[in-house]
Design goal:
The protein has 251 residues and is mostly helical. It contains eleven helices and no strands.
């Protein structure tokens, strides 16, 4: 039992090193509190890996990973675009109003993102393969610990980066990473002919294009302010008594 637990932890931990899940964990740690991110990752990992051991040990069938990957890619793209809109929408003259943050919303964002990302990922297949030869409960526990430990390293890196980077830069960087994840996942799913390095290079074009477009839009706003701003300097309203002849002296 101990050997199976150690094997599951080691295999999944090594499989997660350098994986997109670590980059996602780092990205979320730049925006949300570390315990919220870790809790979302742990919950999603436990759910995904219980599916993995069920597939490997009980069902012996595969999930519709193609459709799941497309949904995950669309989710990443939507999160990236929304975050860019959040940070580039207001101008300096009209700052974005601050709204109170709750822990529940980030938790469900992290949970849903990792659920979609890990369904059909290589760690899921590794867990399913282990469950065919070893006890499913021990494999589930070990694989969950291994993945959470690997992503905890990425969260620690995100915390260190967050202490030295401004919030605006963190938000933009997070959005660009999500655009990259979404484009890479979509290309890898829909275009089987492209190899991994080619997909990675082509996927960079999406966040680069979005960033250039938004920077050009911001520069245009600064160069040509909105017409409403120019209308504030229009003629003042005419006083009620303006234009009337002055009262004659002696009356």
């Amino acid at each position: 039992m101990i050997t199976t637990l150690a094997l599951s932890i080691g295999i999944v931990f090594l499989a997660e090193l350098g994986d997109k899940s670590q980059l996602m964990a780092l990205t979320f740690a730049l925006r949300y509190r570390w315990w919220v991110v870790l809790g979302g990752i742990a919950t999603a990992t436990a759910a995904v890996h219980i599916i993995s051991v069920a597939v490997g040990h009980f069902l012996g069938t595969a999930l519709p990973t193609h459709a799941i990957a497309i949904v995950a890619a669309i989710t990443f793209l939507a999160v990236g675009l929304w975050t860019l809109r959040e940070h580039f929408g207001p101008t300096e003259e009209q700052p974005r109003p601050k709204t109170p943050r709750t822990a529940s919303a980030p938790f469900f964002v992290v949970l849903s993102a990792f659920l979609l990302a890990e369904l059909g990922d290589r760690t899921m297949f590794a867990t399913a393969a282990l469950a065919t030869d070893y006890h499913w409960a021990v494999v589930w526990l070990g694989s969950t610990i291994g993945m959470v430990a690997a992503d905890a390293l990425a969260i620690a890196a995100g915390i260190l980066l967050g202490k030295h980077l401004p919030e605006h830069a963190i938000g933009i960087g997070s959005a660009l990473l999500f655009l990259y994840f979404g484009t890479a996942t979509l290309l890898g799913t829909l275009t089987q002919a492209l190899t991994g390095p080619v997909v990675a290079v082509v996927a960079i074009a999406a966040p680069a294009t979005a960033l250039c477009a938004l920077l050009m839009h911001r520069a245009s706003e600064r160069k040509h302010p909105a017409s409403s701003a120019g209308q504030t300097a229009t003629a003042a309203p005419v006083p009620t008594g303006a234009g009337r002849p002055p009262a004659q002296i002696g009356r």
